[in-house]
Structure formats: C-alpha cells, structure tokens
C-alpha cells in the first residue's frame, strides 16, 4: 500500500490546501506507487514560514551545543533506520541499494559532523591597535531559510542543508523534489523523533512552480539554499538578486576524467565506469566526458567498452544489479533525445544507445549504458549536462590539450586525472578550473568535512558541506564586536 504523505508545519503533520494529490512512482516498476502526496498552496507556505519565523528567536538563543545534541540523536536514529531508508531511496529514486545505503550514510556523517560544530562555530579574535580595547568576530544565524533540494540524493542533500542550517541557529522551510517526497518525509520524521522543537523544521510538498518559487520569494524568508538544474537555479538567482536575498546555488556539471598515456588503464576504467554509470549518470559529479591521451585512446576504449558490456541492469534492490533506471519518464525521454543528438552530430556510438527492456525492465525507465567515441569537444553531447548514462570519449594530443578540453565548458564542478607522473598531476590540479579535483580517482566521492561546489555556472555563493569556507559560511553571517574598556573616547586610526 502506498504511503499517505503530508506536510509538516509547526510540529504537526497536516494536509496541504492545494488541489488534489500527486504520486511518487518507483522508476524501476511504473505500476508501483511509493506514496500519494498532499499538494501545498501558498497558504501552506505562509503557515510554514510564519511557524519558522516564530520559532527562530527561541531556537537561535538555545546554546549551540544543545542544538548539536539534537543532531547527534538524529544521527543515531538514522543509523537504526539506515537499511529501511536505503531501500526507500532505491525504490523511490532508482539507484542501486549500495548507493541508497551510501546516500543515508552521508546524512549520518553530516549530522555527526555538524552536531560537533555546535561546540566550535568558531570566529576570530584579533589584537586591537588601541590600548584597553579588544576585538572579535562571531558567527550568528541568518534567520529563516528556504531549502530546495533535488531528487538524485533524496536523503544526503537535505542533510547537507538542514544540519548546518539548524546547528547555526536558523529555522527552516524545506521544499524537496516531488519525485522523492516520501524520502524527504521520512527524513523529517527522524528529526521529529530526535526532539526538534515545533516550527524549527517545516516541510511543504509541491512543484517548483506552485510552491518553490513562492517560498523562495516569500517576504519573511531571509536566505535560500538551492540544489538543482542550471535553468532553475539561474532563474532563482535573478529573483533573489532583485530581492537582495542571499542564495547559495549548486547546479550543473559536465565533469571530465583525463586519462594520460602513462595511466594505470585498468584503474582508470574502473573510475570511468563508476563516474559515468554510477547512479545511472544522474549525479552532478558524473563523469560524462573522458579525455584520453592519443597514445592510450584505442586501448582504453577497448577496455572501457568491455567493462560497460558487463554491467547488469535492473531493479536496484536486486543484489546482482549494477545500474538502475533513470528517475522518470521526462528524464528517460531527455536522455534518449541526447543520444539522437549525438548521432546527428557525427559522434560514433559504440555501445548502448537504446532503452533496456529485458524482462521486468520493460516496466521501468531503463537505458543501456551508452558510449560515444570520436567526440568533438564542441558537440552538444560534450557541452550540455545530459544527466543520464551517456559518456563521451574525446581524444587529447597532450596534457595541455586535455586541460583545455576539460576547462572548455560553462561548468566547473569536478574533474579527475589518471597519471603516474607526479609533475603532470601537479600541473593538472593547478590548471583545472573546477571546484573539486581528483588524482587517480573518479569525479565522484566528495567527503563531507570539506566544502563541495564548483566554479563558473556550476554554482554561486558559499559551498555545501565542510565547515569554514563551506556550509557554515552559507548559514551564518559575521558580526564584529569591539569592546573599549579604557573609559575614554579612543578614535581608531586617529589616536595612535
């Protein structure tokens, strides 16, 4: 039986005031309904924002270590529910079960990490240039945050946003993707069980157009954190700019792995398979481009194609499955359309390129792992984010050429290089214009204790995850305090 999913506003589970409901569908089995979800209206957003605004004063004044204790309890509950939640991620989003469990593990790690920040949240002390005067900077919460999250990491990305927002003393209105509303609801239930006070964390369901835009532009929202597509993110950036409202946006990627002539090719292929076809290519860090040195090009392609041919496609809950479906009909069509674009552009399709319909897979949104070779870097399949199991292989003359190819897109999230030459890796890590660089590892696998995000059109504002330089810079603002205990007027820069 499908779950009946409601909003969570001011500590209560309530039905929305929107018209009707919508369904969450298992992408591996279109006849399997995961949840029937309430639709929200502007009235529901108003109530959620008002609850968050009312709760802000008490929550922001609660000592940060006490806030951290709630995050620690949430982490412990997530551990207990890891298997159940991981299975739900696989059923609702489609990624294979080990990845679904990894999705939950990221949330566990983030809850523990940010819970610990409750005893740090460090600022800075600095000597004053005047006698009998001290100076310091402290982090303070911003206020009510609108958090808008995507479907591809339905537990992890909400954790990336909710945990640092809460530890910093903000209150939250959370609008998850409609594709993974059940996962979002179960995640909020964890915080409810951990003892989050009413109004501190609120959840509203609905589409981006009906709910998301209204939430982001609501007059009582103080700041926004968004992860999703570039067109949506850029649109929200414009709205927030007009409102003079801070926004942190993480958007697209067109990530690349460089494979040099001296690379360990077997290792590089493992990284390319994981980067290109893990999560069916539906990661912002997916390695959708492989930039291979001309001396290794033919041998690499042979090994890579053979490895792709061994991938087992099917329901992610089966232990034998290596790659699951894409998330929905719209994404299914988009990926197949890009495959046709690649053919028309003159790229050579050497593997896959079709829906996968064997057996029970005919009931889902499955696409074969797809490889194009002889791709020109200016082709659309080498420039635009496909967000599916499609990999373009591009030949490079040398290291400089490879770096120029990698940097030659509007995105700058993640890149990697496989080489045994320490000098080449040093040159690459300096020259690659991406927020994340991997050496002898795939473009996937960021760790939560470091900032996550990209350059150029990939993102704007402070980064996700991490502490200083990352999420805490998103969810706090700086206050500088000068205290003069001299008992007389002292004028900085004048009375020296």
List key phrases describing it.
single chain, alpha/beta, Aldehyde Dehydrogenase, Chain A, domain 1, Aldehyde Dehydrogenase, Chain A, domain 2, 7-stranded mixed beta sheet, 23 strands, 38% helix, globular
How would you describe what is shown here?
By secondary structure, this protein is α/β, with parallel strands linked by helices. The chain folds into two domains: 3-251 and 458-481, Aldehyde Dehydrogenase, Chain A, domain 1 (3-Layer(aba) Sandwich); 256-439, Aldehyde Dehydrogenase, Chain A, domain 2 (3-Layer(aba) Sandwich). Helix content is 38%, strand content 21%. It contains 15 helices and 23 strands. The protein has helices spanning 42-61, 64-80, 82-93, 97-117, 156-167, 181-194, 208-216, 230-243, 265-277, 297-309, 329-345, 380-383, 399-407, 422-431, 471-475, and strands at residues 3-5, 7-9, 12-14, 21-25, 33-38, 124-127, 133-141, 144-148, 171-175, 201-203, 223-227, 247-250, 256-259, 289-293, 348-351, 370-373, 390-396, 411-412, 414-418, 436-439, 455-456, 459-460, 476-484. The strands form six sheets. A seven-stranded mixed beta sheet has the order 15-16-17-14-13-19-20, with helices on both faces. A six-stranded mixed beta sheet has the order 10-9-8-11-12-22, sandwiched between helices. Strand 11, helix 8 (230-243) and strand 12 (247-250) form a beta-alpha-beta unit. The protein is globular and about 80 Å long.
